[in-house]
Amino acid sequence: MLGGYGARGRSDAEASKILADAKAVTDAGAFALLVEGVLEPLAIAITHSVDVPTIGIGASAQCDGQVLVTEDMLGLFERVPRFVKRYADMAAFVDAAVVSYAQDVRARAFPSADQTYQPK
User: Fold this and answer.
1) Which of 67, 64, 40, 39 is nearest to 52 (CA)?
2) Dihedral sign (CA 56, 61, 65, 69)
3) What span, in angstroms and rounded, lies between the C-alpha atoms of 47 and 54?
4) What share of the chain is helix, strand, coil (3-state, %, to 5)?
5) Which single residue of 68, 92, 93, 96 could bond 73 by disulfide (Cβ 3.0 to 4.6 Å)?
6) Helix or strand or coil: residue 62?
């Protein structure tokens, strides 16, 4: 709804509202909370203030669990949020595979007998 990758909870008023919302959602019966893109002290305060697990994404290692978008952590996109740690550079691997595939198709080397159904 707010868009972008900017952190939330920068002002005292916004942080208080987010914390109050976290408590209200928990009181309403939530079984867990996703704490995304908030300042770390606020993520810690939320984690300590609710009785359900908190799952952080761009929040704090002090949340009860963590989540990352697989495509971001594998390095499939150039632009990623600040909170993403890239564990691989799969984009280069994918690019090389696509180039190889295109070369095989142009050379009519793919599909070969190994990738087609032949009469018995």
Assistant:
1) 64
2) positive
3) 6
4) 40, 10, 50
5) 68
6) coil
Best CA proximity match to 33, nearest among 12, 19, 14: 19
* R_g (Cα) of the chain, nearest Å: 22
Torsion angle defined by CA atoms of residues 29, 34, 38 and 40, in that order, rounded to the nearest 10 degrees: 100
Cα 54 to the center of its chain, rounded Å: 15
The three-state secondary structure class of 42 is helix
| Catalytic residue check, 36 | yes
**Residue 2 — very low, low, confident or very high, per pLDDT cuts 50/70/90?**
low
Domain boundaries, the chain: 1-66, 68-110
- For a pLDDT cut of 70, what percent of the chain falls above it? 96
95 pLDDT higher than 60: yes
Contact 8, 37 (CB under 8 A): yes
Residue 104 above 90 pLDDT?
yes
pLDDT (mean) for 65-77: 91
Give me the pLDDT at residue 6, please: 75
Q: Which of 14, 36, 40, 71 is catalytic?
A: 36
d(CA 82, CA 87): 14
